[in-house]
Amino acid sequence: MPDLWPFPVRQPVSEVLEWNTDTLITEAAEQRIALRTDPRSILTYTHLLDGTGLARAAELARPGVLDEWTLPLWHLARPATAPIDAADLAVFVDTSEGTFEAPGQAVIDADGGDAVLVEVSAVLPDRLELAAPAGVTLVHPIVAPVGIGVLTRPIEIDRQRQGLGTVTARFTLRDTLAIPASSYPSHLGLDVLTEPAVLRQPLAESVAQSVEYIDNGFGPIVIEPVLTHVQRRSTITLVDRGTARWSRRRWLHALRGRQHAFWLPTWGRELVLQTSVTSSATSVIVTATADPGVWIGRHVMFEVASGPVFREITDAVYDALGIRLTIAAPGKSIPVTTPVHLLTKVRLDTDRIELEHFDNRSEFAASLIEIPG
Predict the structure, then answer these.
(1) What is the pLDDT of residue 203?
(2) Where are the domains of the chain?
(3) What is the model's pLDDT at position 88?
């Protein structure tokens, strides 16, 4: 196996996921071809080390510029649920949200010390079984899976003073982690982004249609549409904690960058229920911000406490209380206080996602673009 890059990491850990998508756009549709179905993962580690550690990092990197490294995946680390003794043949840790493999390897660490590599013989829901004793005693250990990576930039050493400094190393992983399918609810075969952890609305947004301005110099300017649909662009920032960090990773891997579309709720007040809705009802009455014809063919989400309900609006007419929207029966009762959100079909407008992993959260920003329905 390649040598271990053992140094304790300083938060945050920066991770870049890169895909490669060929997007073919026509006037009324688009086709997206994934040229790289699994993302290229780039990790940037920063280590705060003493003088001995700085010298050790420099000497380790010196002959290993072209070599592969065994890397602790610190951004996927989890606290062990029990102390570790040197003679133990098991490490107790929740493995349901990790990427541990058997046979394989993992690292254990505590109190900012060097990572210790252990051989994993079996992965169980509550523990890792080891092929050999742990060889180290740790009271409050953390456990992380490992990956194989190569250096993609020179090692940077910043000596703040004689006995202390920082080391920055950037690695590209050789293999893609095995990530399960997305766990988000779906509507018409596409995921619905129902769990923005902190910000429930876009930070920035624009609505426009691609057009071409024709000016022959002898008369008025003529505007010719390039696309038949309006493109809504948004920038969202998502912050995840706890189990939501793993759900978000699964969702990002499922999107494959720009290839796969998903539904984005507007989290707005375009539609407001005026009456409760029974489980067998085929229409709802709302107050709306536009005339009835605008809503036909649009999709909505009823934010019910027991689980969201997604429906397409098939007809819309004026009603004494507002606008009556025709939908398929929701299958559950919907109280009048239930928020209603429009669903917009969007995709990522980038093949590069930059994540910052802190001890208690992960966050990233992404640009989105509306696509033809």
Answers:
(1) 60
(2) 3-173, 182-373
(3) 95
User: Residue 238's closest CA among 176, 172, 285, 193?
Assistant: 193
Looking at residue 202, its pLDDT comes to 59
The stretches in the chain having pLDDT less than 70 are 64, 196-204
**How far is it, in rounded angstroms, from Cα 43 to Cα 280?**
51
The pTM assigned to this predicted structure is 0.87
Identity of the amino acid at 245: R
Q: What is the pLDDT of residue 205?
A: 74
Residue 21 CA to residue 256 CA, distance in Å, equals 8
Question: In angstroms, rounded to a whole number, what is the distance separating the alpha carbons of residues 42 and 213?
Answer: 42
Name, in order, each residue with C-beta under 8 angstroms of 200's C-beta and a sequence gap of 6 or more. Answer: 267
Whether 366 and 251 have beta carbons less than 8 Å apart is answered as: no
Output 148-151 pairs: Cβ under 8 A, ≥24 positions apart: 148/2, 148/68, 148/69, 148/70, 148/71, 148/173, 148/174, 148/175, 149/43, 149/68, 149/69, 149/71, 149/173, 149/174, 150/66, 150/67, 150/68, 150/69, 150/174, 151/61, 151/64, 151/65, 151/69
